[in-house]
Amino acid sequence: MEKIAAHYMDNVRWFDQVLGVGRSCDVVSRDFYVGGRRSRIWVIDGYGRDAILERMGAFWLSLPEEAIKPLTQMQDFADRFITFSETSVTFDRQEIVTSVLMGKTLLVMEGMQGAALMDAKDYPGRSVGEPPDGKVLRGSHDGFIEAVVPNMALLRRRIRDPHLTMESHKVGTRSRTDAVLCYLEDKVDQALLQEVRSKLESIAVHSLSMAQESVAEAMRPKQWYNPFPKVRYTERPDSAAASVMEGNIVLLVDNSPSVMILPTTFFDFTQEANEFYFPPLVGSYLRLLRIIVFLISLLITPIWYLMVSEPGRLPEWLEFLSSPEPASLDLLWQLLVVEFLVDVLKLASLNTPDSLSNSFSMLGALILGDFAVQAGWLGPEVLVYMAFVSVASFAQPSYEMGYAFKLLRVALLLVTAAFDVWGFVLGIAGILVLLATTKPLVGRGYLYPLIPFNGKALRRLLVREPISRDNT
């Protein structure tokens, strides 16, 4: 630890140089005379709360010299004359610099040992509106924002329990990004918590340029070939609070409106917030429907290709599926081209202004649908199946899981085309092996509670049960 200097002007020159006073236009410094002593504050413009700083400065300027003269420790001055509640005194230069860059106000006084840090900051941010990817018909319509402090308050508002713990960490050797572990002290798995904590503290990166995604990539096992998501994200405070009540850990990262829920298993992706705002029977139906539709979206095009690639494989009552209309492209290439074009449309829609989105959707549907069929490039059956697959992908609330199933569907289609029935069987076996060998970020296993088996936990994930005593 490098301590601050004993002489006032040495500290002023050092902090001016390191913080960039005169070099960076957003670093504000101001000199005061407090009780006849030279004093100086540093704050980042845009973070400091002007009303609080002005009120404290006016109070300090009114202090008589005899009130300040006997004081030699900054802690004594803070105890007597700094009325702001979030104030600390430190001697560590690096801690002081990091705190100022986080938005705190630094006060250094002549003849005082130590420096005062006042957390009188106000981060710029948007309102806590409902997230676009987690809308519900009933229930709360607030969502996390990019500032970690309001996000913690949204969780505190829902869990007013003294065991609720917010554990702060700094990640990134240069960015020093705030990361907060949120959990219930009396309910969390302590071994799991220690594993998450050690992985978080061992992250060796300069900056979290992609917020929670940077944290996830730095912590996840090195399985680049595995498309299954290792982390579950949510922008809904009620979903995060329910996970904390179940004993899970929520990781909040500054500058991100999404929080990570740990541990994450494959079956966690079967749940969605809307199910819990309907009666248990309706919620169970919606959950089972989502699971069935998503499994069909994985298998429908490979199975259809397998059935129609050779005549006589389909039973008589399904013979209408065995003769797709002829087209310029081979059936396999038709399916692959439409898979590719659907993703192109999704990427293009991300960059389309809202005012043009409807026109873009109509144009894309005309080009890919009617025109492609009339030109003889694609068969109408291919568009029907791919339209179902595209719609089914939106039934899964996790984008990461949706793209994992898409990549597996394309791989299964290619293997089936190459090796026929045996290729389909080997493809299904390969998907199951890949799923079984997926390493979670932390926890007992990616297929828990199926492997290792826990019947009660598995039933709760597959069926929407009535609210229990724990109300989770």
Please specify the SSE layout and strand pairing:
Layout: H1 8-19, E1 27-34, E2 37-44, H2 50-61, H3 65-68, H4 74-81, E3 87-90, H5 93-102, E4 105-109, E5 115-118, H6 148-158, E6 164-171, E7 177-184, H7 190-201, H8 212-219, E8 232-234, H9 237-245, E9 249-253, E10 259-262, H10 280-308, H11 331-350, H12 354-374, H13 380-393, H14 399-436, H15 455-462
Antiparallel strand pairs: 1-2, 2-4, 3-5, 4-5, 6-7, 7-9, 8-10, 9-10
Helix pairs in contact: 6-9, 10-13, 10-14, 11-12, 11-13
Describe it.
The chain has 472 residues and is of the alpha+beta class. It has 3 domains: 8-118, no CATH class; 148-264, no CATH class; 276-436, no CATH class. Helix content is 46%, strand content 12%. A 5-stranded antiparallel beta sheet has the order 1-2-4-5-3, sandwiched between helices. Strands 6-7-9-10-8 form a 5-stranded antiparallel beta sheet, with helices on both faces. It starts with 7 loop residues before the first helix and ends in a 10-residue tail after the last helix. The mean pLDDT is 85.
In short, what is this structure?
46% of the residues lie in helices and 12% in strands. It has 15 helices and 10 strands.
Label this structure with key terms.
single chain; 472 residues; alpha+beta; 3 domains; five-stranded antiparallel beta sheet; 15 helices; 10 strands
